[in-house]
Structure formats: structure tokens, C-alpha cells
Design goal:
The chain is an alpha+beta fold and 206 residues long. It has 5 helices and 7 strands. The protein has helices spanning 2-6, 12-27, 62-72, 87-96, 125-185, and strands at 31-39, 44-52, 78-80, 101-108, 111-119, 192-194, 200-203. The strands form 2 sheets. Strands 2-1-5-4-3 form a 5-stranded antiparallel sheet, sandwiched between helices. A hairpin with a 4-residue loop joins strand 1 and strand 2 (44-52). The longest helix is centred in the C-terminal third of the chain and has 61 residues, at 125-185.
């Protein structure tokens, strides 16, 4: 399972898709959701970044995503049962029309990168205990994979942004050089330009 996810570890999108697919396969859940937490300058955004089956990506409303992400933050793999749930959690499970589910935070130290939600798992007590134990063992590794994929993606975006900025600067310098030459060539006096070593780099045609 981890080897399959690691193959896509350079992309948050691909790693997330593989993660929900493998988690659904492991647990037998009807729906597997990965909710990503992303800090911006103004606030913290929470959104479903991957779902399996993919058509279930809109299972939760924006308000429910916010609620379940906050509810699961810092929690180990936790059993979520509709008949024992209260308040917003009960409403969420009822609207999703699922029975027993599992949710867990994905954190690396104090860095919370998101959570996963497995809706509608088979209600087999022995099987559920086994699944919870497995998820307990791998949840930190899953968080590391997702965080590293996010960092790699951010690094790639930074490189692309800086490359675009350099291209823009070079284009501006080239345009400035062309304007300088156009003005200098029309002047009735000699115009010279020197390098720091006093070598001549430009002389107009005056």
C-alpha cells in the first residue's frame, strides 16, 4: 500500500488519489475522502483534495468539511458511529447515509496537513479493530508523504514563479537596451559606454 502511494509522492494530487484508493481497498469503505488543510495569509482553508470513488468528491458540503476537519484535528484513527454520535457529527453521518465510519488526523508533529474520512465501513468488530490498528501504524507515514508532496509542489511553483520573473526582467532589460541604442544613434555627438574594466562596449555612429 505505502509503496504504491510513494510512487506518486512528488505530486499532492496524485499521492492523494492513490491514498484514498488504497485506504478504501484496505478498509472496504463505501467512500474514502482526503481533506487537505492549507494555511493562507488570511485563514486556513479546508477542502476535499481526493475521493474514491471520484464521483463522491462532493459528498460533504463546505460547512461539513470545515466541521469534520476541525473535529478530527489531532485525533488518532477514530471510530465514528451514527447511533452514538451527537450534534454536527451525527447530522453529517446521517446526511451521508452511512453507518460505521473511521476518521483520523494527518499530522507531522504540530504540523496538521489534513485528515482522512472513511465512510461506511463493514461492521465487523474484529475487522474494525484490525483496521484501526493498521491505520494507527501508517497514519503518520501517510501524513509525511502528503506533507512532502505539498512541499515539493510548493518548491516547483516557486521555481516556476522565479523563472517567469527572470524572463520578465530580461525582456525589460532588452527593451531598455533597444531604446538606449535608438536614442544614442540619433544623437549628433559621440556616445560611448564602458565596462568596469574600461573596455568600450558601445559607440554610436555620430
Amino acid at each position: 500500500m505505502l509503496a504504491s502511494i510513494l510512487k506518486n509522492a512528488e505530486s499532492p494530487s496524485l499521492a492523494g488519489k492513490e491514498m484514498v484508493r488504497e485506504l478504501r481497498k484496505l478498509t472496504g469503505a463505501k467512500t474514502s475522502l482526503l481533506i487537505r488543510t492549507f494555511d493562507t495569509a488570511e485563514n486556513t482553508e479546508k477542502f476535499v483534495t481526493a475521493a474514491y470513488p471520484r464521483r463522491k468528491k462532493d459528498t460533504l458540503s463546505a460547512q461539513e468539511i470545515e466541521f469534520i476537519a476541525d473535529y478530527l484535528e489531532g485525533k488518532r484513527p477514530t471510530l465514528l458511529q451514527r447511533d452514538k454520535a451527537e450534534g454536527g457529527l451525527k447530522e453529517l453521518l446521517e446526511r451521508a447515509d452511512v453507518g460505521t465510519s473511521i476518521g483520523a488526523s494527518l499530522s507531522v508533529g504540530n504540523n496538521h496537513v489534513g485528515c482522512f474520512l472513511l465512510l461506511g465501513i463493514p461492521e465487523d468488530e474484529h475487522g474494525i479493530t484490525l483496521v484501526l490498528n493498521i491505520l494507527e501504524m501508517i497514519s503518520t507515514t501517510l501524513a509525511l508523504i502528503l506533507r512532502n508532496a505539498m512541499l515539493y509542489d510548493q518548491q516547483e511553483q516557486t521555481i516556476e514563479q522565479r523563472t517567469a520573473e527572470l524572463v520578465s526582467i530580461n525582456e525589460a532589460l532588452h527593451e531598455s537596451e533597444l531604446r538606449f541604442r535608438a536614442i544614442a544613434e540619433d544623437m549628433p555627438v559621440y556616445v560611448c559606454r564602458f565596462a568596469p574594466d574600461y573596455s568600450v562596449t558601445y559607440v554610436n555612429q555620430a
